[in-house]
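Table S5 (text form). Sequence records supplied for joint modeling of the two-component complex.
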Amino acid sequence: MSPQENTGNMSRRDELEALLPFYLNGTLDGADLAAVEDWLATDPGAMAALEEAEAEFSGTSAANDAIRPPADALSRFSRTLDAEAVPARASAGSALARLWSGFLAIPASFAWAAAAAAVALVLVQTAMGPGGRGGPVEIAGWGQPDLPFALVTFKPEARIADVAAFLSGQGATILSGPASGGVFKIGIPVETAADYDRIVGLIAAQPFADTVLTGRKPGDGG
Amino acid sequence: MVTMTAAPGQQSDRELVERVAKGDRAAVRLLFMRHHARVYRFVARQTGSETMADDIASEVFLELWRQAPAFEGRSEVSTWLLGIARFKALSALRKKKEVWIDDDAAAAVPDTADTPEVAVMKDDKATALRGMVNALPEEHRTVIDLAYYHAKSVAEIAEILSIPAATVKTRMFYARKKLGEALQAAGFERGWP
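The corresponding structure-token record, covering 415 residues in total, follows.
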């Protein structure tokens, strides 16, 4: 387990127990994999723990397999799909989509940071430009893991200038995104749940907002 | 990790997404056949409603049709689809006012599975565990489902749920702790916790 990760008051044994499902599903690697393998090789109780995880694996698989999708799902989906127009592809995307598509080409380790930094730049430009509020824009919450946030998707026609102007006016920032489904994580640097709810409500009311979901509120734990 | 490795002569998920990005509807149908059941089950477990799962799972693949050009392969296609499904499920629940996204309310999603007591009466540990997994709070059950059933890594679960990797581990810890306690309470031996 990486030193920078905060797993609270878990003991080493607890940490290894938490990793067992990932050992079983074959996704563990690096130091975590070595730690689990070493534990299994040296602790007589470890194999019993692995058997427990295998039983959980079976129970979870059975619970999921018991859910049967409708037999006609594909045919119904095909009819819907055939009725869909071919979406406008890259050359006809919104300004926001074009902006973000550029960041998607950045290596993964830098992409999200670059995206947020780019929005910061846009926010500064917006604030400093004609019609802006003037003065520097503070990128609140940058590097604060406990910052309150909401998850937002924007409408295809959303304009980056409108989004940037609105968020800067509220002290909010895009922390990361887009994740799957075009979801952006919006940092909301407020101290009370009431302020959080007010700003989330304002975001939801904007014409460029598609869906807004409440994320971490002030005072929430991880 | 579920990557739907392509058999010889079969196109990979990523190759199919590239075809979708060019407007190939047949490629969408192929991806639908590969992934729909798991997406459907994931949403059904999120929402507690197979009706909602039916609608949302189809929407996920329509979203794939619309957003394929934006997919750059930073994650597995299955992870990408589950992330879309998660967001759409939460959005749908929010609209229905059945649940709020915060953890306390999410834990209150109705569960229609056997109670642990009923499952235990079947005198089979795996069967009992099935009921116990179903009875977990949503935030814990989802992590268990994604690891054991969808074979996702810590990082992939973090991406799907938009939470830190450390939170994935702590949720897994508490989920397994609750399962252990439930097993013990039901009379099954367990070495941990």
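Note: Chain B touches chain A through 86 residues (CB under 8 Å).
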